[in-house]
Design a protein that fits this description.
151 residues, mainly alpha, 6 helices, globular
Length: 151
């Protein structure tokens, strides 16, 4: 096995471990509510908390689902008191989804938990190592992205 292949496999395993911890946090941070939420519902909470209210179509695109499938997700969030639908004032054909106060609280709990995990990870490093890690992640994040034209 080539060195780059070994490093790629290790990188993948490390990333999967981090993602697994974050998913586990999603489940534990919400206590009893965690037993009632699906992965799509968690992702919907996070998305809707970022800039609400959102069109159902936007939520579908974010989740990678058909609009009719998102209807089921939103129905479930409504039944749990975490989200509500409302008609767009400018175009009554458009349905927007927004979080309720309970939905915002749930999304904030998960976001705080995620931030706590990242703080814990970074606290294992010196300030210089943290900057190096972030610089490397920025570089990796740019791979495959279109290059910006110079001004």
């Amino acid at each position: 096995m080539k060195a780059i292949d070994r490093r790629a496999a290790e990188f993948r395993a490390l990333q999967e471990g981090i993602i697994a911890r974050l998913r586990n946090l999603d489940l534990t941070a919400l206590g009893d509510l965690s037993m009632a939420l699906t992965v799509q519902e968690f992702r919907s909470l996070e998305f809707l908390a970022s800039a609400e209210p959102r069109k159902t179509k936007e939520l579908a695109k974010y989740l990678g689902l058909a609009v009719n499938s998102v209807t089921d997700v939103v129905d479930a969030l409504e039944q749990k008191g975490l989200a509500r639908r409302r008609r767009d004032e400018a175009d009554r054909r458009v349905v927007r989804v927004e979080l309720t106060a309970a939905g915002r609280d749930a999304a904030e709990t998960v976001a705080r938990g995620h931030l706590d995990i990242y703080r814990t990870y970074l606290s294992a490093l010196t300030a210089e190592e943290q900057e190096t890690l972030l610089a490397l992640y920025r570089k990796i994040a740019r791979v495959g992205q279109p290059e910006k034209a110079p001004p």
